[in-house]
Amino acid sequence: MSNTLLLWLVFWILLIVMFILDMGLFSRKSHEIPFKEALTWTIIWVSLAITFNIFVYFELGRTKALEFLAGYLIEQSLSVDNLFVFIMIFSYFNIKKEYQPKILKWGIIGALIMRALFITTGIGVLEYFSWMTYIFGAILIFTGLKMALGKNNALDPEKNRLVKFIRKFIPINEESESGSFFVKRNGVFSATPLFLTLIVIESSDIIFAIDSIPAVLAITRDPFIVYTSNIFAIMGLRSLYYLLSNLVGMFAYLKIGVSFILIFVGLKMLLSLTPYKLPIQWSLGIIFGILFVSITASLIKPQKTQK
To answer: Residue 232 in contact with residue 48, Cβ under 8 Å?
Structure first.
């Protein structure tokens, strides 16, 4: 058995077991995830990612391990910024906190499938059309500049095309007290705000993937590293959401940091077809540095404001 095949086996066994524990046994009843539980599961998922990274180091070598870590950090930092969008979506549809874990669970299942398709397509496109590297790089730089300048479009789920389509063909029951995606009233099945919320979150994840997948592909084209680093970050999203929803005001400069990371990996992708390639350890150091500065600045700002 090759080293990569062994790691794939370990990855899927670990993923299935943890999925059953995190989103099955411990989430059978709808409940609001308290801060302590969210912190515990966040630590568990981060620890698993680090442990798996150690396995990658011993089985595939130092370079692949650094690529995994860089990909994980990029996806994690982008995910943190995207979680704030999820907070606004839940607020817009007035979804109770005890029902939000259910929506996030199904959102993560959808993300697992869509990311596999995006990664396979992205690697295939870059393999056969190398000039697309410049397109991907330009998209990352443009997105980073747009984010840094604060020119993201205001969130309006009702303008989502899938939501419009569903409202046109499926009756909508505005009550979400049952915590179900669909309800049957007077013999008629109708969708609830929970289902509309899930649709908006799934479609939002497609938009997020347009940023995150090219960003990781700027680090490595290895499908194993790209997919596993993405999935470890995604699987911890649910607990991370509840952890950060209590600390939403403490990351004022994180968006700026994420924008600089996107610009950096975009430039790295543009340089990947030239003799001036940046070593992976330098890339990882720059990503670490940007995250450290943005998080530190965010933690200092509330203290100055309070004084």
So the answer is: yes
